[in-house]
Amino acid sequence: NAGVTQTPKFQVLKTGQSMTLQCAQDMNHNSMYWYRQDPGMGLRLIYYSASEGTTDKGEVPNGYNVSRLNKREFSLRLESAAPSQTSVYFCASKHLPGQSQETQYFGPGTRLLVL
Amino acid sequence: AQTVTQSQPEMSVQEAETVTLSCTYDTSESDYYLFWYKQPPSRQMILVIRQEAYKQQNATENRFSVNFQKAAKSFSLKISDSQLGDAAMYFCAYSEETSGSRLTFGEGTQLTVNP
After folding, report:
1. pLDDT value at position B98?
2. Exposure of A90 in the CB half-sphere (CA atoms within 13 A)
3. Distance in angstroms (rounded) separating the CA atoms of residues A115 and B37
């Protein structure tokens, strides 16, 4: 049981390049989330998927797209990377949508540097 | 929109002593949940403790306890008998049902434990 896994761990991009961050969970969770963490700030929600087949914008969605490929996988795509997207990206999941008391389980993070 | 504020960017404590980290939040909801997450240098997000707003009793997990003041919208974390392994960034977070159970994080407090 690996929990939440993210690939890659670290990536360097040039401005304008595209890439997809992968996230997978093996806990049979329904809800999945993408956050970004910038220095001196807490995590901010980019997009989330309350259940398979649905996605919604979070606090900072501009410049990103997401795909809930199946129940296990939730990917985050940067179509044209910008230096402002340099950050650490976290994926998280939890069992049930709408159950705020549930713990969100986080992946180890992907550190992205855009030059 | 809900906001979470941690007014102490850095705190330090002597090993075996007690330290309290502060958190305030703003919401118009009556039913919500509050969390403290720990982020060590590994960047892994680890749930420390959780509080349901409808419960008057303060949550406790071993050496960690909270002081939840609903009217004042305050949610502080007390760490007793501090250990070197407690050194980390601590984030206060808020969640409620109407926003997809997303987590809204504070800016974080960096805790140093001195031997």
Report:
1. 66
2. 22
3. 31
